[in-house]
Amino acid sequence: MQTITSKIEFITGHFGECDVSRDGTNVAVKCPSCGKENKKKLSICLETWRYHCWVCGMKGKNLYKPIRDFRGADYAREYSKRFNLNSEDNESAPEIISVKLPKDYMMIAPNLKCKDPDFKSVLRYLRSRGVTDKKLWQHKIGTCISGGYWNRRVIFPSFDAKQELNYYVSRAIEDDIKPRYVNAKVKKSEIIFDEIRIDWKKELVIVEGVFDMIKCNHNVTCLLGSDMSIKHAIFQKIIENQTPVILALDEDVKDKTYKIANLLFTYGIEVRIVNTQGFEDVGAMSVEEFDQRLVEADNYSGDSKISYLIDSIRSGSIF
Questions:
Q1: Using CA atoms, how far apart are residues 258 and 273, in angstroms rounded to an integer?
Q2: What CA–CA distance (Å, rounded) separates 155 from 281?
Q3: pLDDT (tens digit, 9 = 90+) per residue, 161-184?
């Protein structure tokens, strides 16, 4: 049986320092959802595990969900096991989805001499996007040549830090094939694309998509979009490791770039922003052009967002 002291130690380890109520039945900690200041507004009952934030209203019957969302699934499972919670007690317990590549998936790099006409078409498409042999090996890019649904698609698999498949992106090589993209049925916010290749101690380049990623010869990952919030797995990992970041998102989502930059900056992360003006996206740049723009990337500060907003008002782009 877990003691009150052990519960407090556990809570402190995941939510930071806590204030214990006079009767010893409740503690107050900084809310991971809304707390940007050192105010302890998340109340946790030590007897029942019920919690409630008096600012944002986040509440529930035990800590499984906030630990999962803000610390990670492994810690949530540890909490459930340590305190003998039944699976039905775990609010919104994540559905375990097994990610599997199409059964006929084949890596392209070791099969460059394949004479199948669809394989050759896929390879030509990749060459047109600037994909070298090195990149084919590095990203384990593949395709399927057995005909059917996956035919004439490029497939980018993603592996987590434990070398396990956690996602994949597939793109049809013809724009008129619908849907153009078919991806794994996993929430993008819950995975870090190709984490196996990330060094969290080095500056991390963040781009939007897989074809942007292959233009970068540095420590890189992609968002699979243009959004990032405190609930995203990549955000939590960056904060945990205090990883400096370079944002290289498309010019047409510049407002989102500054929103993400400001969020990271608020949590003490060093941020630089790449100027992608003049190109549709990073994938349209040459490797050499992108390297040069990384070197020239500007440091973000609180004044950076103000300057951006002023420039937007002058150009009329925010109206």
A1: 8
A2: 20
A3: 999 999 999 999 998 888 899 999
